[in-house]
Amino acid sequence: QVQLVESGGGSVQAGGSLELSCAASGRTFSRYFMGWFRQAPGKEREFAAVITRNGIITYYADSVKGRFTISRDSAKNTVYLQMNKLKPEDTAVYYCAAGTDWSTGRRPNEYDYWGQGTQVTVSS
Q1: Are 90 and 77 in contact (CB under 8 A)?
Q2: Phi, psi of 30 (to 5 degrees)
Q3: What are the tens digits of pLDDT across the range 70-94?
């Protein structure tokens, strides 16, 4: 069982930056690949970024590539999402998730545990 708690959301103007954090409980953080998803009002939850268990490989959605960076700190049981050059279309609730059964890392059904989400609002 893993509990995930996101933080760092907020309101920012277009072009600004935010860093989201996701703290994981338990001593098995290294067992999980970690992803960030987002969901805008009236839209389906969509993949943003994923990082492998060892933190070496990362993948990004085309919409965030070059602007967002995912990383993890195993000593702190925490995964981060650094978001730069934010756009109004990045406005969403952002969720972190932990999974064990890797297929693509991009599908919500590959993940076993989810956080409660943190709101990010980007104004133009």
Answers
A1: no
A2: -70, -10
A3: 999 999 999 999 999 999 999 999 9
User: 1 to each of 13, 27, 68, how far by Cα in Å?
Assistant: 37, 10, 28
Q: Rounded to an integer, what distance in angstroms lies between the CA atom of residue 21 and that of residue 90?
A: 17
CA–CA dist 50, 48 (Å, integer) = 7
DSSP 52-93: -TTS--EEE-TTTTTTEEEEEETTTTEEEEEE-S--GGG-EE
Reported as half-sphere exposure (CB side, CA atoms, 13 A), residue 3 has a value of: 3
CB 74 within 8 A of CB 30: yes
pLDDT tens-digit readout, 14-48: 999 999 999 999 778 999 999 999 999 999 999 99
Backbone dihedral angles phi then psi of residue 14, each to the nearest 5 degrees:
-55, 135
